[in-house]
Amino acid sequence: MTSDTAFSAKGWTPDQIGSLKGKSYVITGANTGAGFQAARILLSKSAKVLMLNRSAEKSDIAIADLKQEFGEGADVSFIQMDLSVQACVHKAAEQVLETLPHIDALICNAAIAQVAKQEITVDGFESHLAVNYFGHFILCNRLFERLNKSAGRIVMVGSEGYKMGIKTIQFDDINWDTNYHANNTYCHSKLAQMMFAYELQRRIKKAGKAVKVYVCHPGASKTSLINHKASFFSRLMFSLMAMSPMVQSAEKGCYPELMCATEDKIKQLAYYGPTGPLNWVGPVGECKLENFALDHEIAARLWTLTEEKTGINWQLRAADATAHFATA
Ligand SMILES: NC(=O)c1ccc[n+]([C@@H]2O[C@H](COP(=O)([O-])OP(=O)(O)OC[C@H]3O[C@@H](n4cnc5c(N)ncnc54)[C@H](OP(=O)(O)O)[C@@H]3O)[C@@H](O)[C@H]2O)c1
Fold first, then answer.
1. Cα separations in angstroms, 242 against 102, 220, 248
2. pTM here?
């Protein structure tokens, strides 16, 4: 449901972006899908793009494609990072800090979805929550101070799924041992990401930090999100849906994240994406945000739980630099 588009009937498009020469963007999961398209458009505007991808092989192919399109001078590179392995996220974050003195935006785009059977990561967590949420929480924490010095942004790529699951955080069974369900766990992880983003906005405001956090969703886009790990039924359903006009290209799916990474005329405590039927397609603008995603108490509880599960003590203090990690 649309609350407003603010960017004419066409909605926001990348035509609104001017030259990004001298600007640096970090994108997770950018070897394919919406993340790849976001990288493409940022490069077309002369930005520097650093991808954080789990597959070196797929990254090499993506970079070769981008260099073919934009020339050998295209400023695109990658660092290997598997969001499901917390140690790997820490290592990748260190490499990012060594590579980029300035970060204009960190786009938390990577995700897994609809994993048919419960999978537990090496760190002991349900895989959707581990990849989509815990991994990004660690990354945001580790890059926060660099983003703060850069007056940069964090873009959280959520999903309309945030309102299709249990609509809260399942604190009493965070790994879904008793009631595992492929869609509910995906939706749970996307809600967790979004609640974290809004809580981070509140804490940043209180601490007077310079980082802006924006939340968006790509609508329904033709990507490889539903893959071999999904059930046969899910794959069939999504491949049939992909043939309908209710599903858009991966390129259009990246517009909301690009908007959140570059546009000045947007606000926090808001939610951006396609505003047409079901918010799956249509002009990109502000979408209605359900109140449960803004619940302070649940968000604060989730923050504490996440600190415990990641071993990160993330205090944002007003006086000094602030976001720090400490292994528990
Ligand atoms: N497509 C839709 O209709 C839709 C709808 C709602 C929300 N979204 C959201 O949009 C975002 C982009 O998804 P997409 O549709 O473009 O899907 P996609 O084509 O499958 O891209 C997802 C990316 O995430 C990466 N990834 C997965 N697991 C990872 C891990 N453990 N560590 C690091 N990277 C990992 C994938 O890498 P590999 O190539 O190695 O797997 C890929 O690069 C996601 O946040 C998704 O939740 C999509």
1. 38, 8, 8
2. 0.96
